[in-house]
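re: ur question from earlier - yeah i can do the single chain one, its not a big deal. heres the input i used so u can compare w yours
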Amino acid sequence: MMNVVKLTWKNMWYRKNLTLLTMLTIAIASAFIVFIIVINDGIGKGAKEGFGPYELVIGADGSRTQLMLHTFYHIGAPTGNITYDLYEQLQASDSYEAAYPMTRGDSYKGFSLIGVPTEYLSTRYPEAILTGDLYEETGEVVVGSHVAEAANLQVGDTFHANHGYIGDEHEHDELTFKVVGILPKLHTPDDKAMFTTLDYAWVVHDLDEEDHSTGDITSIVVVPKGIMELQELQQTFDQMDGVQATFSNKVISDILTFLDTSSALILILSIVCIIIATISVTLALTAVSAQRKKDIGLLRLLGKSKSFIMRTLLLEGVFLTLFGSVIGIVFGHVASYLVSSYVFSYAGITIFPWQFHLSELYILGGSIFIGCLAALFPSLQAYKVNPIVLFQSM
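and the output i got, formated as tokens:
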């Protein structure tokens, strides 16, 4: 067996350019597949965990996707404002376990500033242990771990918020914010958010008002008591003028369906690459078999069996596809690592680029099958070589 492996290895690297080109074709196809698997897995898990137990969102009428992405993933702008009276109306209901109003509209260095009761965090992350304390007074802030790192904020630091989001240079210097706590790494979009008291927006934006105890809010997030209560709340608020009530899971499922469709297109391209790789291996081994007829004939005259010759070509096909797929798997994880920071900065979804997936074993197993399949025709040709006839024709 060692003789077969040694001979196959030498034959492969005798024509380096052909070997490397064939491996590269296989590596590209494998890298595409691994990249899709890793990214889809991270986005799927991150998207489903992004809204936590808050299965219903109430906000201003408009795009349901926009409302969902802005409320939980801190992407884009709010659909508008709703009155605080809606929250008071919800409080009169006994169909929910927890419900919290939110005020938004300002940011610091591109990170959203969210006004919400502290119970939102304790309900969403009951086991989280933060550094410092929760906010109590207007202007006190708890920041996500990514915000603290990216903006170089520590407990005790102060800052002024900007109106709106990225690109707005108007600074609210009438209210100084102070960091009183830093959340641990949560691996959710809240890692890149800043939390403060609900009334901060009323204080900053309604300077002419004497009473800042109530004002408009951007959304209400709800933990229902059960499925029946969820349906009841959704129907009640969704039929109000200028208001929408959105099922969190439904919106995220629609988004993931769209992403799955996009991923399917990339998978189709990967399959095309695999077909091309199989043809490439077959052509390469056919060319090698034709060029080595004299070598094959000489080996036969030296006493090597037909099966020995056939095994060398089969093994070469396996080596080409197996090594190519291993390289591709590594490239796929590296590519996932390179885009993971972009995915997190945009959507707050954590990608785990170095996490192994069972599907990668299927890729390796499939590569062995493809290698054998691609080498089957060339190896049968080599098997039929008659050394006597070959040397008589020389």
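The chain has two domains: 2-47+258-392, 102-213. not sure if urs matches, ping me
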